[in-house]
Each structure stands twice: as structure tokens, then as C-alpha cells.
Amino acid sequence: MILEMKVPSPGESITEVEIATWLVEDGDYVEKDQPIAEVDSDKATLELPAEESGIITLQAEEGDAVAVGAVVCLIDTAADKPEGSSAAPTSSSVKETPKVIPVKEEVASTYATGTASPAAKKILAEKAIDTSTVKGTGKAGRITKEDAVKAVPSMGSMPEDGARGTTRKKMSMLRRKVAERLVAVKSETAMLTTFNEVNMQPIFDLRAQYKEDFKAKHGVGLGFMSFFTLAVVRALKMYPDVNSMIDGDFKIEHDFQDISIAVSGPKGLMVPVIRNAEKLSFRGVESEVKRLAVRARDGQITIDEMTGGTFTITNGGVFGSMLSTPIINPPQSGILGMHNIVNRPMAVNGEVVIQPIMYVALSYDHRIIDGRESVGFLVAVKEALENPVELLMDNNPTSALEM
Fold first, then answer.
1. Residue 379: which of 231, 202, 230 has the closest Cα?
2. Active-site hit among 33, 130, 370, 394
3. Residue 147 is a catalytic residue
4. Which is catalytic among the residues 33, 130, 213, 366?
């Protein structure tokens, strides 16, 4: 029996996916539920498992955009599994279908060979490229517009050990979608950024005192993200406009705080969501951050886990960033940027002392968030981080870290 495997719907509103990587080769024997491909949607990368065991015949190439419901491969469920190996079967175990290998036809030179089309000629002229240095791929060797676009100007003679390579690789569907959204944010929102600085010494002192017991008790580290997440939750309650968003002519307000956290995954930046962060303790936040980061790293994050956030926290400090203006994650209205921590001179009680300082940035949509709310929100975050025992732990850090 020949089973047609079709592209399942990875989520609402998604009509097509892109074959990112085939994990098997044409003619391989696959087991039921074995991952056979990675497919990109505009929201996530997902694995495609085999629906049945058998010999697989691929029906699409890597990089192909395939509609949801379209056939991407065939599985011959009647084929026997090769003995002693999961590799593609030999002729003794399954009848091999003859393959026709196309032969490249030699093209005879004509008057068109090496001649550029009008569009190609214009592009080559702008690049100052001689048409004689470009090989045409059009009919009878004619230089097409695409040939001209791909052509690279010669930089003159190069030493043998000075080879210069250029590759052209299509971006994944996810990366293209991210690019579209970032451009849309810049053009469709009134985005501004406000800055402040945070003295991280109080958090350093708490972590030094409690981090070993915290990890032994809960199995996760006491990092900075729990302090920042709980400080953000507190500030969002004080300034609810920062936790709202625009939908056409309407303002959508939320009475919960779903905090999106930007994490780096194998396919690029992922933004999973900590649901109902307002109900979580330090242990709850750290456990959820670890769980989501591991799933993103392993390529297991789902679309549902990356949608629905009301505010985003991004930490460029892990890569060494001192200061940045983070871009809003639509349809949200605000994003907090964390940065690296550097020892800097600071006035404390009238004296100059060296303290670990982090610059923080809040980018916000000025259409819905006014200056008072944006500045007040960031000051509230700063206050909570500089006085965590009183404002985040109810003056009882031991109890707050045991929950």
C-alpha cells in the first residue's frame, strides 16, 4: 500500500510551510513516528514524523514552499525492512524503480550566446561588469536579468591564497516572517525608547547568600530573569497601559501578565511566553524559563508557546551589549531590554563607590503609552530591582525563595 503523507496544519491561519531539511533520503526505510523532515512555518520550525513504517519516496525538495494538505512524500507500507540495517534497501528486499538521469544538453553557440537582455545590460552597466565575463543561463546562452543580478564585479588579480567566496542562501520562512514583522513595527508604530540604570548590587548580595540553597532545593539556578520578570509584573500592575495593545480603533487591556522572553535557538530568535507570570514565585519563573529555553534550544517549541504574550523581556547582555533600543514584539506595546553588567563609579550616600550597573531600555508604542507611563514604568522596575527584599519579597527573602 502506498501512503500519501500530507503537510499537517501547524496552526491557525498558516496556509503553507517550507521544507527546511529532509532528515532521510529518498529510498530510505523509515519507522513509524520517526522524524523525517523539519518544516518551517512563519512562526516556528516543526518536525514531521512518519505516519507509517516503509520505504519513503520524497515528493518535494529542500527549500520548497508546500501548501498545507499537499503531499510531500510517499511511504510504501508493504515494503520489507532491510535486514541488519535501517538504510535504504537493496534490490533483494524491494523492487527498485528505475530512475531517469537527465543529460545536460550541450548548447550550440549562436548570435545570442553571451548577449545580455536589455534589463541585464542595464544592471551590468551599473555594476561596471563586462558582459564577456558573465556566463548566460538563458536560451542559447543569453545573459538573463537573474544572471546580471548574481554577477559579482571582479576585484582584479588576487593571490592564490586570497580566494574570495560568496554564497546565496534563501532565508527560512520563520526568518522572513520575523523580518517582515520588524519592518512593520518600525513603519506602523510610534516607537520611542526611554533609558535608565540599575544598581545590581542588592541582587548580587541576595544571589550570593541564597543561590546554593535555592538550586539544591528547586533544581534550578537563581538567575536575574526571575528578579526582572517579577519586577516587570509589579510595574505592569502599576502602569496597565504598558500591558495593553491596539486593535484597530480599540484599546485591548489585560488583567494578567503573560511575559514573553527572547531566547536564542538553533533557528534564530524565539520568543516563548511565561503564562500568568503574576501568579509565579521566584522558583516558578526560573523553572519556566529553563523549560522554555531547553525546548527552544532543542527545536521543540510550539506555536502556542510563542503566541499571546502581553509584554516582552529581551536580554542582549548575555552577548555583551551595553545599550540598545529593542524593537517592540507586535501586537504588544512595550519591550524591556536588559544589558551587560559593568562595574562603574556611582554616588552612594554622598560617596563615589564602584557598583555593578546595568543599563535598561524600554521601547514603547507612543500611540497608546504616554511619556508619564513609560518613564514611570521603567522607574518602577528600577526601584524593585534596587530594593528587591522590600518590593519583591515582602521583607522575607527566605520565605520568598522557598515557595
1. 231
2. 370
3. no
4. 366
d(CA 181, CA 27): 39
The DSSP secondary structure of 373-397, one letter per residue, reads: HHHHHHHHHHHHHHSHHHHTSTT-H
Closest to 56 (Cα-Cα) out of 79, 38, 40, 33: 79
pTM above threshold 0.85: no
DSSP 55: E
In 3D, which of 334, 342, 143 has the Cα closest to residue 246?
334
161 is annotated as an active-site residue: no
- CATH for the stretch 118-150: 4.10.320.10
**Whole-angstrom distance, CA of residue 24 vs CA of residue 261:** 33
**Which class is 190-402 in CATH?**
alpha beta
- Domain map of the chain by residue range? 2-76, 118-150, 190-402
More confident residue, 366 or 98: 366
Q: What is the CATH number of domain 2-76?
A: 2.40.50.100
Residues 6+ apart with CB under 8 A from 190: 365, 366, 367
Cα 99 to Cα 304: distance, rounded to the nearest angstrom: 42
Taking residues 136-155, report their average pLDDT: 78
DSSP state of 241: G
Residue tagged 519556566 (cell numbers): 288
13: CB partners within 8 A, 6+ apart: none
Reported as a pLDDT band with limits 50, 70 and 90, residue 162 is low
Reference 6, options 46, 51, 40; nearest CA is 51
